Amino acid sequence: MRYRQGFTLTELMVSVALMAIVIAWLMGFFVVQNRSYVVTDEVAEAQQNSRTVLDLLEREVRAAGMMVPENGAACGVDNTNAPDVLYVSDADAIDPTNQKTATLGAKVTGGAPAAAGAATLTVNSVVLDGSPFYVTTTPGVPTSDFRCDTGNCGGANGVAGGLILVDAANPGRGVACGTITAIPNATTIQVNFANVLGGVISNSPNVLAIPAHVYTIVNNQLRRDNLVLANDVEDMQVAYFLDLNSNGTVDPGEYPGSLGQAQYNPAALDGTKLREIRVNVVVRSRTPDLNLQGSQPQAMENRVGPLAADPPGQNYHRRVVTSTIRLRNVGQRT
User: Fold this and answer.
1) 75-130 pLDDT, tens per residue?
2) Among residues 292, 314, 318, which one has the least CA distance to residue 305?
């Protein structure tokens, strides 16, 4: 008689242990690969979203200054320890039909601010061209060329546009900009100003309010008029080329806001000299990569750096997207 010999208990335990080790290794390998794929996909998504957003921003910067005084094309807040804020004149709200001169603006008859902060402007009309674009009451019909979607848009969730203030008769006074908080009626605009006009009044002032889009970074979101355009955006830094000597080239001191240059101060610069705006956006992956070490936020333009590294276990992948944009409606008029 022949007996069939089987596996001993020891052999079975060794086989099971080896199989468990192989399975654990394979599972770890697949987890790492999946995490790497997810992070890479998130970085690609964030970068693609930022490029799409910059396409919109490029279009609006190129159109800035359309049908309004040249010095009212753009304005900004240049921060060295936080994201910048960019204001560009709102070409969407302008109807160029039957307009013979590019000097549109709401005439300010009272309330021009003497200091940064809240101000109430009295204007001849919140409609620049006879054709209102935005609805400021709900429900309602278009009543204003300045954006304040509920008429009282000062809350955290309010959809609020910006406003650029210029003295068309004295461009050397620079520009002022702020975010609209309310439009109580057809001749009143309430604004939270970031700065005020500077310079010397050498002619009879012609202070005009110009509707603008405002780009900000809030809670790692890139927002336009407080509406979210893209998530996972850490920073936006902006630099401005002003051809102060009108020679068509960038000379020392003519690119404020950039690395090694002076801080951009809109109240001290003639906006008619603005020729180019460079926008830098820092995007990151939605989730951290546990296998990444030593990652840190990127310091662009005149942002003070290097910035603090990510905490252990919270290292993000980052990309920087840069766009340099020429203004079509500034510096071309005769």
Assistant:
1) 999 999 999 999 999 999 998 888 878 899 999 999 999 999 999 999 999 999 98
2) 318
Do the Cβ atoms of 277 and 327 come closer than 8 Å? yes
Least trusted range by pLDDT, from 142-146, 147-151, 213-217: 147-151
Token pair listed for 127: 């409609």
Dihedral of CA 74/75/78/84: which sign?
negative
Query: What HEC string does 69-84 produce?
Result: CHHHCEEEECCCCCCC
Q: Which of 203, 200, 209, 201 is nearest to 119 (CA)?
A: 209
> Residue 106: which of 171, 183, 200, 27 has the closest Cα?
183
Which residue is associated with the tokens 């252990």? 312
Bridge partners of 104?
none
Confidence of residue 6 (pLDDT cuts 50, 70, 90): low
Burial of 177 (0-12, 13-18, 19+ CB in 10 A): buried
Q: Which residue has the higher pLDDT, 29 or 68?
A: 68
Query: How many residues appear in the chain?
Result: 334
Nearest Cα to Cα of residue 136 among 126, 150, 123, 146 = 150
User: For residues 221 and 155, which has the higher predicted lDDT (pLDDT)?
Assistant: 221
The 10 Å CB-count burial string (b at 16+, else e) for 154-164 is: eeeebbbbbbb
List the 274-284 sheet strands across, edge first: 233-242, 274-284, 318-326
Q: What is the pTM of this model?
A: 0.87
Which residues are CB-contacts of 297 (< 8 A; sequence separation ≥ 6)?
234, 235, 282, 307, 308, 310, 318
Using DSSP, state whether 30 is helix, strand or coil. Answer: helix
